[in-house]
Amino acid sequence: MRKNLSVAEFYSCHSKYLPDNIRKEVGHFNVFKVSDMQSRCSSFGRKEFYTIILVKGRCKYHYAEQTVTVEDNTLVFCTPDVPYELEPVTMKKSGMLCIFTADFFSRYGGIQLQEYPVFSAGAQSFYKLTPARQQEVVRIFHKMFAEISTDYLYKYDVLRNCVLDLVHEASKLQPEVSLLQHSNAAARIAAMFTELLERQFPVASLSQQIALRTPGDFAEALSIHVNHLNKALKEITGKTTSALIAERIIQEARLLLKRTQWNVSEIANCLGFEELPHFIHFFRKNVQMTPAAYRK
């Protein structure tokens, strides 16, 4: 699988120059009009930076193992953890986007981007804007364009606020999920479980193998009884520990089958299956077809 696209590689694909602030600032941020960008280098894959895109026109959004069609005035949030590609369907080349690294927020109040719903693992990543939200999102992007061209000493603080404004505009469009209805202990266990699970992905080389595959593995890593883990996850997510683990392994298996040339046995080994038949049975049970059939 291809290594993650770096910020420097992004500029070599889409722009004629590498901005000075890519070297001078802590982290990196920039904002673009889609019409000003070169169209090459739009291949599917992970990037080493976050992207927020205001889609104009119609395009196919390929992410992880899924594909959806997005229309005018859709806000798309892309993270370094999930491979993606936006494939234009119409000739209309407009819209706006900004890119930024995790380090861009590293000295900004200890913000962890993954804590926001739009960037969390498995979260919805595209939001159809209402007319009012669309007007506000356009205003925020225009503010970014105006601010980044100034010599104001604290302009990157302003730009960080603009990014968070986009995050909040999208968050207002989804149902609020409050952890207050759950016990703090259960929410904390669920968060730690998710962090351990996601830490094993993506699988980027044949030498990589996930180590935690069963509820017992995770319970031992978290130093709690497996029944306690099951109860906490069921309370927070409504799903069993086994189901959550299986969903994530299947997501990665689908991605590797689609986007690599690795054989099924190699993929099975990377995903922690010592015997190929066990992987084939697991995949067929969850996807209703064999890995070979899915790849075709």
Automatic annotation (TrEMBL):
SUPFAM superfamilies: Homeodomain-like. It comes from Chitinophaga nivalis. Residues 187-296 form the HTH araC/xylS-type domain. This is Helix-turn-helix transcriptional regulator. Keywords: DNA-binding, Transcription, Transcription regulation. Gene3D superfamilies: Homeodomain-like. The keyword Signal does not apply. Pfam families: HTH_18. PANTHER family: ARAC-FAMILY TRANSCRIPTIONAL REGULATOR, TRANSCRIPTIONAL REGULATORY PROTEIN. The keyword Plastid does not apply. InterPro entries: Homeodomain-like_sf, HTH_AraC.
